[in-house]
Amino acid sequence: MKKIPPRVFVLSGFGVSLVSVAMNLIVLAAINDRIKKTDDELSKLSSSLSNQASEISWAKLDANIFTILNHIAFASKDPDAETAGYDSLASLRDYAARKYAAVHDISPSEMMEQQSEFQKFLIQNSRDLYDQADKKAREGKLAEADKIGKKADAISKFGITTLSETGQKLLQFQDRINPDELMGKDTIEIQKSIADLTDEMNGQFIDSYKSKQARIDELRNKKEDLTWWSSMVTYIAMALQIFGLMLILTRDLTNQAK
């Protein structure tokens, strides 16, 4: 039987070692990169669910404030009770905004930014017009006052177009709660009036939450699989390295035997 030359063992050993290095550099690196991307998406989804839970908590608080203020406004005959009524509806609009933010994953800072821009626009463009309308009314020029007042109302209504797309959608959603239509109604009547809107918001929130939770479970399973493959590739690469070293050592052992 022809003997295998020692250099064959050396070359084979180096070849096997190179394969193990390639597995570490290419295959293992690719798997670790996918694990990192999976972790990043998991982190974003977990943060999103946390933000949703926070917004829902604030929404519940706004709903409670609405209920309290509306009870006060409806039960009291005090002239200031009307103010409480408007404040209650403002809280109800805040409740709707919080639910919208929870469903569409809008951060609190982004909501405040949008509302701040809108308020700034109103202050700059409508305040002077309302002042002019009041002045004309005091002068007895009611027709001019009414004309200026309508112009100010138009700015207040359509000023939303100056906002970003997110801000426009948010305020349009809030406007589905119309204070003029709900003013003077008790809590039960108002809740019935916005029942469709409430059901819509709750349905969207549940769908969004379940979808994200399902994706999180999917990503966790994916990460477990990738981690298993990472371990297997590491073990195989180590085994190949040891096998390559054994092939190289075979030459030395052969020489010592001779």
Element-by-element helix/strand order: HHHHHHHHH
Write down the overall geometry. Answer: elongated
Task: Count helical runs.
Answer: 9
- Beta-strand portion reads under 5%
The average pLDDT value, as a whole number, equals 75
Helix content: over 70%
**What is the first-to-last residue Cα distance?**
17 Å
Strand count: 0
Report the uncertain regions: 158-162
- Structural class determined from secondary elements: mainly alpha
Rg computed from alpha carbons, rounded to a whole number of angstroms: 34 Å
Major sheet details: none
What does this structure look like?
The chain has 258 residues and is mostly helical. The chain has nine helices and no strands. The chain has helices at 6-75, 81-104, 108-125, 127-138, 142-158, 165-174, 179-182, 187-193, 195-257. Helix 1 runs antiparallel to helix 2, helix 1 packs antiparallel against helix 9 (195-257) and helix 4 (127-138) packs antiparallel against helix 5. The longest helix has 70 residues, at 6-75. It is elongated. Mean pLDDT is 75; it is low at 158-162.
